[in-house]
Amino acid sequence: xxxxxxxSDIETVxxxxxxxxxxxxxxxxxxxxxxxxxxxxxxxxxxAFGASLKTAYGQTSNAAAILEILNFALTLEYLExxxxxxxxxxxxxxPAGDRAVFQxxxxxxxRHVGFIENAIRTAGGTTxxxxxxxxxxxxxxxxxxxxxxxxxxxxQALEDTGVRAYKGQAANLISxxxxxxxxxxxxxxxxxxxxxxxxxxGQKPWATSTDNPAAIAAVYEGEGNVTQxxxxxxxxxxxxxxxxxxxxxxxxxxxxxxxxxxxxxxxFIGA
Amino acid sequence: xxNVMIDSVACNGKVGRRWFMQVLGVTSAATxxxxxxxxxxxxxxxxxxVQLGRDDVGVLNYAYALExxxxxxxxxMLTTPYAGITPEETQLLTDIRDHExxxxxxxxxxxxxxxxxxxxxxxxxxNFADRAAILAAARQFENTGVAxxxxxxxxxxxxxxxxxxxxxxxxxxxxxxxxxxxxQPRTAYFASDEVVAFNGLENVQTPEQVLSAVRxxxxxxxxxDLLPTT
Lengths: 271, 230
Description:
The complex is a heterodimer of chains A (271) and B (230). Helix content of chain A is 55%, strand content 1%. Chain A has 271 residues and is mainly alpha-helical. Chain A: Pfam families: Ferritin_2.
């Protein structure tokens, strides 16, 4: 499967997706356009979550745009899930001392897949076809499943991309409290994964402007941004403490657009 | 005059705290307050505490209060480092302290005249000399912070504020993972089943839960009663 196949899948599920996407880009008051009549008390329960989405679906076509975002997230989760399962199954790849970490990450990715699949189906949507993983990214990392350092490099790239991907969609989900909250709850788990992988790899746990895992520069594009909400945060000072040189950029993780994320993810999708 | 101020400012639900304090302080016995009786009935005028406020400003003040707490905590941690702290740990904790200070100063700057005052904080119950104890406290602060932001996202109405909150919360989650890894290296502790539910989703806490959890450390009472709930 390739990127075009994913996009055409989305189109099949929702023929008006692109039109709505363009409309959504105009950032109208989606909160008003798409307000749920009732709120699910427990968003952690996929059934209630999906049902609330289904209720919304009947109210406005904007729910279809949200389903499309969920399928985008699901595509990333499929790739991560397949990636860690392949790595855990690769003999001698992950040292025994680090195995508990990757078992935990793998479990989370599997459950993210299940949660999002369930949500989409319960809402009456159709999940995208699970892409076939190419862990080498079209040959860029030929030894990813036999060399631990290569594996860690790719794992870090995938996790940091996942964090940026969810972050980039948060504002697009502002109209639906339940979906937004669930996305944020997954987002922070991906950030924990990213931090731990980076630490094992000997990097600082926070993304820095100098990050650049070989050949995946796009993963960190714009991470050095120091202008937040119109404030130059590198100019903030406090008496008695000299803030670290990279702290202003590191204190904020930056979002990526869907197009940026798909550009990074596409090489990992096998034919 | 004050009557007009109350009508036009306090009753629109978007009053900045200073305005509100000013109005309350000056006219608490004035008949003008009846113009705003509904507002006052709702919130039980606080005594000696800090009112976070309503709407997005209230939510940002909520974040600002938590960042004040975290920044002060790590500043203290580095002022009185625990026994046996390593150079690497000092560097990592210094990074975290700087992030929290920047979050705090950013929110203070962004809120401008709507920002709550600097809170009185009290960490007297914590043992900063003991590595395991103080890192456990740090882990609790970070986990609470992440759960707080995870729950606060939906309370925001402005999508730009939501994205900003997203930019901060993932850094807090990175802190949380690192602190856990310092306590139990290379285990599942960095994203344990205690903070990530069976469905793979991290915990969420309401402002009420969070403000209650941090109450032992806030000398100033922080009142979130006016915060939105959706």
